[in-house]
Specification:
Elements (H helix, E strand, L loop, with lengths): L1 E7 L5 E7 L9 H23 L5 E5 L3 E5 L6 H24 L4 E7 L7
Parallel strand pairs: 1-5
Antiparallel strand pairs: 1-2, 2-4, 3-4
Helix pairs in contact: 1-2
């Protein structure tokens, strides 16, 4: 299962997200469809954040199926809004995939703590 977690601080501001796992869906080709879809949506989100934020997010992608992205400290209110729109657009896409393939994908929200990010 792929688990996507959006992290929010105590002020309900988005701090970052992680994507972890593989779809492991039975059936020919469906595994590739879910994994490729989640990967494309998440990586496009990273590209959007990189393009529209003056302070670049801290991110890492591993071959094991793990991705993380954390917003840098000191973003202006305008940049925080841009980042939240980009990530919430990712969330909408992933929730749509989860609706069709919920046995392979779980999108959730958690409280962010300093230990969660780099």
């Amino acid at each position: 299962m792929i688990k996507v977690t959006l992290y929010y601080n105590d002020d309900s501001l988005l701090k970052g997200f992680t994507v972890d796992g593989h779809a492991q869906m039975p059936g020919s080709g469906e595994y590739d469809l879910v994994c490729a879809s989640v990967s494309a949506v998440a990586q496009t989100t990273l590209l959007g954040l990189d393009a529209y934020l003056s302070s670049k997010p801290v991110w890492d992608i591993k071959d094991s199926g793990y991705m993380e992205c954390w917003f840098p400290d000191g973003l202006s209110d305008d940049e925080i809004k841009k980042a939240e729109v980009i990530v919430h657009t990712m969330e909408l896409g992933l929730l749509s995939i989860e609706e069709a393939y919920g046995q392979c994908l779980k999108v959730s929200k958690r409280r962010w703590t300093k230990c969660c990010s780099k």
